[in-house]
Amino acid sequence: MASSIPVSAPADLAPRRRVPWLAVLAVGFVGSLFLMAAAAPFIAPHDPVRQSLRLRLKPPTMEAADGRAHPFGTDHLGRDVLSRVIHGSRVSLLIGFAAVGVGSLVGATLGIVAGYRRGWFDTVIMTLADAQLAFPFILLAIGIIAVLGPSFPTLVVVVGLSGWMTYARVLRAQVLVLRSREFVDAIHGLGGSTLRIILRHILPNVLSSLVVIATLELARAIVLEATLSFLGLGIQPPTPSWGGMIHEGREYLDSAWWISTFPGLVLMLSSLVVSRLGDWLRDVLDPTLRGE
Questions:
Q1: Is the separation of the CB atoms in 70 and 52 below 8 Å?
Q2: Does the global pTM surpass 0.85?
């Protein structure tokens, strides 16, 4: 009688990778930020631009004489800080995403074409990138906005063009490797045009890097917009913005710390979480970092 030998269940050949809990929190925070910006007119407890000198410099409280609480307090003009923070998220996210769109479009196009065509075009693009990296961009941004005037389109263009070099450099390096592959020569031999090769074969191979760079650049764009608003060169009052709120509260740090503290905390958390999300996407999309 043959002895029965217990057979263990086959192990998974491709076990699922666990999603880091920090990445889950980052996705949840970014999603909440989007919802807050989209529903700002409905969830803000007060009008963000309505002034009331009778309520000026009220500390954070959940109870108020008028029955309407101010959890983040009020500023020097009696405006509700929480409502202004909620509406300020719309400015930061809108300018951030629009600037990332401009920067990625310009940088990716120039980087891919420079890496594929090489020659004088590659030299000119890389020289321009080096020149912009060598010059403090904040001074250039101040000069451009001072000449054109602070406006939404100007901010989008200035912030967007501040990061095109990152896209161009990274994608150019990847295209230089891809253009030497056999499949590119095969498509050339079959009569494929340069535009078809770039759009159908080069671009899909660098798309993951483009997404990662765009995520990381989003955090930098949000901080840069807040910096320009702090300097008075961004979105102009009375439209609320995080940088502008920090600027308005700098004179009241000793007596009304909440005016600058709460928008500063939200700005810091937003930039840190978006950066962390970009790091996680890089680990997921880059096969060389998977440890497999």
A1: no
A2: no
